[in-house]
Each structure stands twice: as C-alpha cells, then as structure tokens.
Amino acid sequence: MFSAGFLEHTQILEGKQTLSSIYINFYVDFIVENARSGGIIYSPTRQLFVSKSAGKIRAEEYTDVCEMRALAAILGPHGLRQLHEELLKHVGANVVEMKKISISNREPLELLKTQTDKAQTCADAIKRLRDSDEFLGRSTTIGVICAFRRLIASALSSVLENRIPFIFHAVRDLHMHTAGSQAVDMLAMTAGVRSDVDPMLLRSMQPHCSKTDADFNSFSLMMVMFASALRQLGGLSTSAFRPSVDGLENNGHCLALAISDLSAVFFNMTATEKDPRAAVTEAQAEFLRVAAVLLLRMQAGPERENADAIYVVLDLFINDSAFLTADMMEIYFPYSLVRCAYSELYRKRGAAKGKAGGKDDGAF
Question: Is the pLDDT reported for residue 54 higher than 80?
Fold first, then answer.
C-alpha cells in the first residue's frame, strides 16, 4: 500500500494535489520568475543558484547538491521527468518569440554573417537590429533553465547510482555504446545521464522545427543573433564577473548553455542532406566564427570594460559543446586571450579583497 501510494504521489493527477505537483510548481515558478527578474545567479563551480538579495526564500538553500538529491529521491525519475517537461514549456514559448525576432532582423543578420570581415558594415548592421534586448533576455532565461535542468540530472544520476548501481551502470553503458538512438537517449535521460543532443528538449522543440529550408535558414539567423547578443552582453553594466560564484551578475554565462543546447537540437532536426552531427558542428562553428570577430572588436568599443567576462562566456560554450573542441576555437579566437581574461578577472578580485580588508566583494 505504501509503495502504491508513494508512486501515485510522484505523478501529476488532474484535480488532485500530489507531492509531485507541489514540488514541481514551486521549483518551476521559482526558477522561471527569478530568471526573468534576475533575482538569482547560477554558480557553475558551486553547482547551485545564489540569491542576489536577502528574502524569504534563498536560492542556495533550495538548489544545492544535497537539496537536489533529496528532491530526486522524493520524486524519482518519473516525477523529475515531469519537472523537465514543465520547464521545457517555458523554453518552447521563448524559442517561438526568439525565432520571430530573428526573422524580423533577416537583412542585418545576413550582413553580419556574410560580411563579417567588414568592421563598419557589421557596426551598422548591429545598430539596425530590433528587439535585441528582448532576445538577450529570453536567451538568458533559457540558459538559466538549462542550468537548473543540469542540476536535476546530476542529482538524479547520483541518487540512482547509489540506490540501484547495477541498473544505473547498465543504462549508462548501453547509452555509451549506442550512439544516436533517441530511445536510448531518452532512457539515459530518465537516469540522469546527459546526451550530446538533449532528447527531451528535442521532443519539445518538434512543433517549432521541421526539415524545411525555411526553418534551417531561420535557425541559422538565430545563431548570428546569438553572436550579436554576446557582444551586446559586454555593453551591460550588469555583466560584471563575480569570482565568488564564477559567473556574470546577470547570468550572462548561462547564455553559453542555451546556445549549446538549442543549436544541437535545431540543426539535428532541420538537417536534410547532411549528417545531423555534421550539421550541428557546422552551425556551431559558424556561430563561433561570427562571435569571435565581434568579440575581438569589443576592445575598440564601449563594451571593452566587460570584454574579459564575455571571453569567458565564449570559453564556457566551447567546454559545454559536444561538437566543438578547443583547437577549433583557436582557429577563430586565440586561447591566450581567454587565459589572460581569467587571470585579469581573478586578479581584480584579489585587489578588491585587499582594499576591503579581506572581505570578498563578490559574495552576495
């Protein structure tokens, strides 16, 4: 009776409040609302979210490793899958609007893509972009959701490996040796094992993607819009790097996760004649090319104050992508600049701590 009753509470039942519905509603509302308002910051090294100001609910008390593992133990794979699905509904809604913005900016984006080597042409094209602030905000929101989904997956894999190690390792080994199978990828996802292309995100994006030239071109434009958004990020005062959380104050570093996950799904679904993996690699490499040129020109513009922080975001994208490697980044963007950026950002932190008498000014 206990097992049957507990299993029922890991599901969302119409007209009935269950443990699953309570936890899912809480976390979805908390993450999405704070992602939009900028009330929390994702810390990749600490594997949690941090609240920017004191309040009734502090993000670090509900999203740290212990809390996420407890949530995974309570809801189980089925409950967490529903949590993923609810979060992905918000991702889908944002993607629809971002796609519209990209299509409306077709002409300047085409110029940025085809005439990247002409500095003045690119500068004029960037000025002509409309609704770029909205695009950046929606992209960052998706990035925050992607970061939270990673925390969920990591917690679930830890719990299952501890409770059912034989089954967990069997699923992981099957996934490792069965490349490209969506059924196996979905099975692995329910065990908290990540795939190169997120199977749940892939399924949720199906209504918005099709194997047509129009969709392929639209998402190609969106990749250029992402590159422009990175440059725009550098011009924001809220893009200051916080070493205490190893990220940007406005969650701009989450943009790397959004670009990595979305591009893998978009070009996997819209690939026609090409191998899907080759299509994703080509699209991400094209984004890297455009973004690298725009970021290198930041040193000559008003965005140069936060240039180091944006270089770090580009490095995070390369590290997160399963399709690009550091040597491919070196073709377009010298990695020595990334090393210098990290050094400078953490040097500033040390200098600030010295002036504050040892107090870390990056902590919230």
Answer: no
pTM above 0.70, yes or no: yes
- 2-21 pLDDT, tens digit per residue, is 345 455 555 555 556 777 88
CB neighbours of residue 121 within 10 Å: 15
Average pLDDT over the chain, rounded to whole?
87
Confidence (pLDDT) at 275: 85
How far is Cα 201 from Cα 85, in angstroms, rounded to an integer?
Answer: 9
**3-state SS, residue 23:** helix
